[in-house]
Amino acid sequence: MNLARIYDLFAPLYDLLICVPIFGLKKEQSAALPHVAGKRILEIGCGTGYLLSRMASPERSVVGLDFSKGMLQQARKRLLCERKKASLVCADYHNLPFESCSFDSVVATFSLSHAPDILPVFLEIHRVLKKNGRVVIVDVGPASRSWLGARILLSLYRLEGDHPRDETLHLEMAGLGIIHRKELSKLGTVHLVVAEKLPFHN
Ligand SMILES: C[S@@+](CC[C@H](N)C(=O)[O-])C[C@H]1O[C@@H](n2cnc3c(N)ncnc32)[C@H](O)[C@@H]1O
């Protein structure tokens, strides 16, 4: 079964599961919010729309993209319930269905670690960002200090089929310069990275 179908099945339970401490992602997701800038925002792998709904406001145009119809259905319900407005698009983030230079910020929380090869995704993000636009990422990756607990956790992510990584090199190769990086979880296996579109591309 492919990943989008797995998320389709899992979608009605997703919000319950992320409240369980071992998966507990909500606090880390929210760390992205203060770094989101501008009026035109794209969230890729938006899932059930927790952040999307928090970013949506009358002053902003917010788009949520995900390849799981089930997750998007949950996001639609949430937006309706919370009376927020955002556009939802069903697509793969390897091929973003948007014009070049159209977003001020691209946000991705716990979605990019599903991609085995991240460079093509960063090149797509670079393409759709406006000049000086930024990408805000929260995801799993190696901790700066090699705790045993951190190594075990990373092995578990890998067993699940995830690709925990330090994105630094690939961001730079795609023309995205890091302006901020912080470890978020106690073991350091969840981090926040903010990078800006460098002027010499596009
Ligand atoms: C772990 S969930 C994270 C959802 C949400 N961002 C959050 O922080 O709760 C990963 C999401 O990324 C989506 N996803 C994974 N790979 C994708 C791809 N190639 N294109 C679009 N969405 C993808 C999944 O369908 C899922 O909704």
Pick out its properties.
Rossmann fold; globular; binds S-adenosylmethionine; 202 residues; alpha/beta
Could you tell me the strand content as a percent range? 15-25%
Alpha-carbon Rg, integer: 16 Å
Which ligands are bound? S-adenosylmethionine
Can you identify the CATH superfamily?
Answer: Vaccinia Virus protein VP39
N-to-C CA distance: 38 Å
Walk across the major sheet and give the strand order: 3-2-1-4-5-7-6
Any idea what the CATH architecture is? 3-Layer(aba) Sandwich
Helix and strand pattern: HHEHEHEEHEHHEE
Name the assembly state. Answer: single chain
Derived structural class: alpha/beta
Runs with pLDDT <50, length 5+? none
Query: How many individual domains?
Result: 1
Mean pLDDT: 92
Task: Tell me the number of helical segments per DSSP (H or I, 4 or more residues long).
Answer: 7
Describe the structure.
The chain is an alpha/beta fold and 202 residues long. It has a single domain, classed as 3-Layer(aba) Sandwich (Rossmann fold). The protein is 33% helix and 25% strand. It contains seven helices and seven strands, in the order ααβαβαββαβααββ. Strands 3-2-1-4-5-7-6 form a seven-stranded mixed beta sheet. The mean pLDDT is 92. The site of S-adenosylmethionine has 20 residues, from α1.
